[in-house]
## 1
Amino acid sequence: MKKTIISLLVIFITTGLTAQTIFKLDSIHQYSWDDGMMDWRFDTRELYTYDNGGSKETNLLRLNWNGVNWENFYQFNKDYNGNNDLSQSIQQNWDNTGMTWQDSSRELYTYNTSNLAVMYQYAIWNGAAWMVFNDNQYAYDTMGNRIEDIRRDLNFATMILENSQRWVYNYSGSLLQDEIYQEWRDFLSAWENVEKKDYSYNGNQDVSLLEVRAWQTVSSDWSDPYEQSIFSYNIDELLEEVVEQIYGSGMWNNSTRGLNSYTNGNLTQLLGQEWNSGTTSWDNSFRQLRTFDVDDNEIELIYESWDDIGSAWDGFLRVVKFWSPEETLGVSFVELTDELKIYPNPVSHVVNINFKNPTASATQLHIYTVNGKLLVDQKIDTGSIDVKIPMVDAANGMLIMHLENNHGKRIYKLIKK
């Protein structure tokens, strides 16, 4: 039940999460709660790369912390077509033995002349070639509404893709009225209905009721609703509550509930609860806490579960995101070499700059925010080797470091956490 309510919330709160300015995701840091340390443990990092000044990542690199160093785990290499639509994504896993990247899976996307996806294909690398496991084929009406989604899966006996699942969507204008799920029956050589979802809307054309029905094979018609979700909105038309109910004993019975809280239009808390029929009240189950920066970018997400015994929230996962405006990511950053080391990066308190050889001339150091605000203006004297820069007062996020002397200028990326 928890998965159902989370997915519904994700579907219908998207409009409240749009940032006013276009930013690019620079990196994601993931932490898990360590009971022994009584603190968050830094486990994984995801680094995003944007090629040719594009607005979508061309590489996503996942690193895991082994207790001593960051190790490669997997990466996605992505290609886009002329309309900037994702056309290919290849996942590669790191081989510690061979110290190389190994192909793992591939996703292909095909679009029509209206830039609508008409096919998705998933394949895995078998060591010699790509083997297609499944695909989805999409159809649209003249308004661009998706009206059909057919999934085919690989039959390992014949090694041919065969019909598996089908979704049919019906609309009134642009409003989805119902969604029918079907499965392919070989003995009938036809699609058979399984489940139907009916949507109702309020005066603002927001979904107010979702009813789920089952197909009755004997009578060849749809059952009465056996599950429903009721949606409520606040004065700003932002989703505030979703109550999921199950029909039984001649009445609707509460099952799960999701409550949303907002700050400046951003979803800052999602609270999940389960109905306790014994106390006829809602019991806490889980919650998600979100923090946003001044540009409405989500910078932190914490997952917590409710501890009935201690009557307290227990955090188990923390995700920290770092964003950069599009224009600053067009800067050509210099890769670090043996001639120069900047550490730690990310930095919390003090960043160290270590020159392999004493500086031959005076060097000017500037550190800026991505919005161009000058944070540090310091002269590095001739003959310097180690330089320490306090960073305590800097806000979390991406920073840009300039080093300039008579031999030229170099620009480095620095992350403050």
Note: The chain has two domains: 2-325, 333-416.
## 2
Amino acid sequence: MSGNREQDMSPGAATPRTATPRTHTRGTDARNTGAGKAGGPRTGVLAGTPRTGTTAGAPRRRLLAAAAFAPLLAGVGMAGTGLAGPGTATAHADTRRGGGPVPPDHSGHPRGPDHSGHGRPLKPVRTKAGDWDHVVKALGLSGGPSMVRGEFLHARFPRTDLDVVSYGVKVSPGLALGSHVAFVRYEDGSTLVMGDLVCAENELQRVSDALFAHHIEMTALHKHLLAHSPDVWWIHVHAHGHDAVALARGVRAAIDRTATPAPQPRPRSLENPPLDLDTRRIDAALGGTGSNDGGLYKIVFHRRETIVDRGMELPQGLGASTAFNMQLLGGGRVALSGDFVMVADEVPKVLARLRQGKINLVELHNHGLSEEPRLFFTHIWAVGDGVRIARALRPALDATRVTPGGQGGGD
């Protein structure tokens, strides 16, 4: 919108009216006379006509009006900045639960504009696998989810039904075709759900409708691959509430709109087959340690900062990881699919350095809506010698504030 304001001249717009002056005599209500004293006729203050003279009551009325509005104006200015005085409890709309005042947190402190107590974000609490039994059941999983560092439940739904080809490479589910969701428990008993879902193009609208019907937000919709067939889309999701099972049912309803098969445990003999890849040199080139994930080589780096999303502190790596997935092609060659997580001032350097290393850029976008600091992601693609690719990635990696991660939950 333009910052210029113009008088509304459209039909039906309010126009000034000139009222007939009223005459007040002794005994007239002081609100109309302003001074409230006996005297001769005066032009009525409420009549809307200009006064012909100066009265002693006018400055007093303006002073009283200013005093009446001062608390409101002060409250507006301070509520928006979190500067309300000591002992002042200000209600803020909780957009995560459809509006209304935000209840106090577990300590009894009213939450500030970021939904935390006096500016302190809610912290995740450690859980055990058994704490999520009802969620696992609602997700329709049996032995599929895993606990990540005791901080969150991570459930994967690989799209083994899709035969996707990109630039002559048959993309495996572990390379770029895995839906996943993470469930985090917080100190106030609430649960956060984050993740992304892989959808064929003919599934996309049905999945979107199911998410909206269950009050699960779509925070991003985009591609993770360059030209590929058939067309696939990735939906990033976010939800928060005190009924973890209801959240899980919503995720399940969305997945049921796709042809995603039920996850099956890998036979132990095929769980982590030997890799025809010089992983030692790849680790040295990147400055981290990767892992064999069902025959793919994966290496993850986490943001060093604490990430806060809508007043909730995210476990390290959740929604804030740089991840490189390498699908083996034989003879030390790999297909690389991955993404970098960056803050704004890192983006130009990372993109330039990736191209200097002949790494293909796929997308630049956000995955979330309101995390702090604001995060940007660029998805990448490369095919070639695994060690050479790792060395090409390192200058871009060095331009970001990340630390090597272990087991990650995706983003």
Note: Confidence is low (pLDDT under 50) at residues 1-56, 62-117, 407-411.
## 3
Amino acid sequence: MSLKLLGAFSALLLLVGCPGGDKDDSGDSGGETDADTDTDTDTDTDADTDADTDADTDPPPDCYPTTTAGCTDLSWATVETTIQALFLTTDEVYGYSEAEALEYARSVYDHGAPPIPWLGVLSAASTGGTTHRAIVTVAGRDGLPQEGLTAEDFTVAVDGFPVPVTAVSRLADGAPKATRVALSIVVDDSGSIADCDANFVLAALESSFDALPAIYDARLIKFDSEVLVAQDWTSDADAIPYAMAHQCTGRGGTALWDATAAGVASVPEADLRLMVLFSDGIDTASSSTQSAAKAAALREGVPVFAIGLGFADIFAMADLGFGSRGAFVYVPSGEQIVTAFDLVTSAVAESYVVEWETGAAFSQVTVGATLPDGLSLSGSTNAL
């Protein structure tokens, strides 16, 4: 896809011709002088016009050479050694002992998503009148979207009081234009991101979000040690990959938590407000912290779906994702980046729209679900 650029450049046309009036009668010298003048003027004008044209039509820079070679590709032994090094100076990381951390990391290394059941209430709001709905993501014991749930499998409590569930459907099955999504995309563009990895991120931005409802606004933030709004809010889907390809950073350090805080800020009102975060490393340049970034996501009501690559901070990003009512996906190889983005958009598209009727205003909603194996899950959110 290519960005449809609006507008056109205006050019100044200089018309140079023979002067009017009487010619010089003193031989050919006057004519020669006119011809020389005309030729010089034409040459200068042509040069100026060419220079102007070149300046006006210079293409934007390409941030990444086109290549599928040199992608990140970590073995489990490398990941294991990296995690063991973390525990040389501490007894726990995000509540995990070394044995627990290795077990958790091995599961995400092998499966992409942590094989744990979870339920996230992504949003809750009125649809008009007395009808209200919540958009709920449910994962089974394998950590993947749970399919086949019906209204009988869900419960809803509004400010602590149970209300009957009137309808349940899949978000992906909704009528066109039924759900407006505001999607904030935050991409690590630090020096550790290989050009090959970046090209796979670009490919994901070109295709992965097709699974989401057709009506959405999106923004792209890229970051190294600085945070760059590469493309502000737009409904032009082509603008996002274009900005990824042509709005370049300095490829420096990693301001992961500063970028996360920026990503959840100023997200416009919508039926569903989300952030997708991609990173391959630990924070090296933020003034903010992981806990502050997670608190900002909860305060703003923007769930974070975090994607980790290679040496990504698995435990910090997983805590951010699940702690903000979003999720976490990990891939050890750059060639799996598109698959990771597809997993995230699939989790959102496979969300359930749970509806109920109530005439009273409410501030908090709790949604419960019983899975086919009998496992019960629940989650809460504040009303929009």
Note: The two ends are 34 Å apart (CA to CA).
